[in-house]
């Protein structure tokens, strides 16, 4: 208990974690709904996207991707603005998504009834299908969070100043940061694609997640930057 108190005293920003129980309770309650009409989300593009079980790998890597990235930002105590901005985008986007699910119950019905062949990937997907309902899909939180995490990392202090030799003085560190940034982008794209190829989401869900991110990214990142620049110029 003493160590926990010391940790919370040192890392007061850990209070943001308290949002997670609220989110999980809200989302779980929405997943259990059966007495509402669900609007089916589908577009013509979905019919041309093939099912590909290999994409379960990046789909599940999403959990590790989000966790590791937030832990990194959490412990960058000299640059906590990066952590706060990233969390602000995540919390606002996730809450907005839950509000949309609540007001506009939606679902997708594109999951395959059977798999063409059996392997470790389809076995995992079968478990995923049985534990994760096909409701509450628009906008895609999976897509939204992936993009938010990538930009949260890319816009963090050392990543955005990677070419400034006064900030990142070590060549090896500079190279490592660039590799991580590129890897983050590739993984982010693969995760977004996986939501479509696993038939977890419609293309419309992906677009919805992108638009939602663009909205909050503008509010949290771009507007404050422009206001600061204007005040500096004045």
Question: Can you walk through the features of this model?
Answer:
65% of the residues lie in helices and 2% in strands. It has 234 residues and is an all-alpha fold. It is built from nine helices and two strands; from the N terminus they run ααβααβααααα. It has one domain. The termini are far apart. Strands 1-2 form a two-stranded parallel sheet.
Descriptive key words:
234 residues, mainly alpha, two-stranded parallel ribbon, 9 helices, 2 strands, 2% strand
How are the SSEs placed, and which strands pair?
Layout lengths: L1 H9 L8 H13 L7 E2 L15 H19 L5 H24 L2 E2 L12 H12 L9 H14 L2 H4 L10 H27 L5 H31 L1
Parallel strand pairs: 1-2
Short description:
The chain has 234 residues and is mainly α.
Looking at the structure, what is the overall shape?
globular
The proportion of residues in beta strands is under 5%
**Helix residue percentage:** 55-70%
H/E element string? HHEHHEHHHHH
Please provide the count of β strands: 2
Distance between the ends: 51 Å
Structural class of the secondary structure composition?
mainly alpha
Strand order of the largest sheet: 1-2
Uncertain runs:
229-234
What's the structural domain tally? 1
Average pLDDT, rounded to a whole number, is 93
> Radius of gyration from the CA trace?
20 Å
Helix count, per DSSP? 9
Largest sheet: 2 strands, parallel
């Amino acid at each position: 208990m003493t160590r926990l108190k010391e940790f919370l005293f040192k890392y007061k920003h850990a209070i943001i974690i308290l949002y997670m129980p609220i989110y999980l309770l809200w989302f779980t309650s929405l997943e259990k709904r059966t007495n509402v009409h669900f609007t089916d989300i589908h577009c013509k593009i979905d019919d041309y996207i093939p099912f590909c079980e290999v994409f379960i790998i990046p789909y599940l890597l999403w959990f590790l991707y989000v966790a590791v990235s937030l832990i990194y930002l959490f412990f960058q105590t000299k640059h906590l603005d990066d952590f706060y901005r990233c969390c602000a985008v995540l919390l606002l986007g996730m809450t907005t998504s839950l509000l949309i699910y609540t007001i506009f119950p939606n679902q997708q019905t594109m999951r395959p009834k059977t798999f063409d062949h059996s392997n470790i990937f389809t076995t995992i997907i079968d478990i995923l299908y049985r534990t994760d309902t096909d409701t509450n899909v628009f906008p895609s939180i999976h897509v939204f969070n992936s993009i938010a995490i990538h930009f949260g990392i890319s816009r963090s202090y050392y990543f955005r100043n990677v070419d400034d030799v006064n900030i990142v003085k070590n060549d090896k560190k500079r190279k490592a940061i660039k590799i991580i940034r590129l890897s983050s982008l590739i993984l982010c794209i693969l995760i977004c694609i996986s939501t479509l190829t696993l038939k977890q989401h419609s293309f419309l869900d992906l677009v919805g997640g992108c638009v939602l991110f663009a909205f909050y990214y503008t509010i949290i990142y771009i507007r404050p930057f422009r206001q600061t620049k204007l005040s500096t110029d004045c």
